[in-house]
Design goal:
6 strands, 3 domains, nuclease, alpha+beta, hydrolase, YicC-like_N, four-stranded mixed beta sheet, about 290 residues, YicC/YloC-like, Ribosomal Protein S5, domain 2, 9 helices, endonuclease, about 15% strand
């Protein structure tokens, strides 16, 4: 079963003094890129979250966001009393030396704006609270996995249908092959009659040249390889997860055989079939960009 790299998962927790929302989004990417937006209180757990994401999602551009709606405060601002007192004593001494009377209320407003007059105290991480948040993170991670699997199922159905279309188009090729060979023979013979006198033609050599030319235009190997590649593509898709890159390589081989088929075709009907095959393959490649 194929898995998509696109997904979304969310979990909401109601804790004692806060509401926590956890969201995980993912898009397609060549490798795993993880971006986190986490409150400072939980920053020390960033690596733990990243490791779990890496194990579960494997590849993609992943964004983890944790939002806090707090009744209390994650950080508390307090007056740094010793510093304020020191500032006040120095200003008081200075005012006496200069003979300037201090107005207590304005001077306090000025002092609290001076460096280090206020200090910020962050809450300590509560492990019990963190365990609840981590459980919510696992719920969001499970949701995004389910989302990816559903998307992967839809991708697989579409890709399989297009591979089947290529196989059906390949089955249409043989009906035009005999006419194609006769057309080539006739064209060679007509050109020979137009430019070379018949009595000067060595028939044995002529037959050898026609056989050589027709062998160069033979598409039997391309048809066999293309059929095998399509079969291998289907088998690989059903083999398990994380096959997106491998399927991309197989799609390149399918494209190579289709291109060779087109270059050897020498027939308008087969060329039309080749164009339809290429159209289906391009749509498959677009879908594979999103497959894990």
């Amino acid at each position: 079963m194929l898995t998509s790299m696109t997904g979304f998962g969310k979990a909401t927790l109601e804790l004692e003094n806060k509401k926590v929302s956890i969201e995980i989004k993912s898009l397609n990417s060549k490798q795993l890129d993880i971006f986190t937006r986490i409150p400072n209180l939980y920053k020390e757990k960033d690596l733990v979250l990243r490791n779990d994401i890496k194990k579960q999602l494997e590849r993609g551009k992943v964004e983890l966001s944790i939002f806090i709606e707090s009744v209390g405060a994650e950080k508390e601002t307090k007056i740094n009393q010793p510093i304020v007192e020191a500032y006040y004593r120095q200003l008081n001494e200075l005012s006496k030396e200069l003979g300037i009377e201090l107005d207590k209320e304005p001077i306090l407003q000025t002092i609290v704006k001076l460096p280090d007059a206020l200090k910020v105290e962050y809450q300590a991480l509560d492990e019990e609270e963190w365990n609840q948040i981590f459980d919510g993170f696992k719920v969001a991670l499970s949701e995004i996995m389910d989302f990816r699997n559903q998307e992967g199922k839809a991708l697989q159905e579409d890709i399989f249908a297009r591979i089947k279309n290529i196989e059906q188009l390949l089955d249409e090729v043989p009906q035009y092959e005999n006419d194609r060979i006769e057309t080539v023979k006739t064209r060679i013979n007509d050109n020979l009659n137009d430019f070379v006198e018949k009595q000067n033609v060595d028939k044995n050599r002529f037959e050898q040249e026609i056989i050589y030319y027709l062998e160069k235009l033979d598409i039997t190997e391309e048809k066999v390889r293309l059929a095998n590649h399509c079969k291998y593509f289907m088998e690989t898709s059903s083999a398990g997860n994380s096959v997106g890159k491998k399927l991309g390589f197989i799609a390149q081989e399918i494209g190579r055989e289709i291109n060779t088929l087109g270059s050897k075709a020498n027939d308008s009907n087969i060329q039309k079939i080749v164009i339809d095959m290429k159209d289906e393959l391009e749509k498959i490649k677009e879908q594979l960009l999103n497959v894990l």
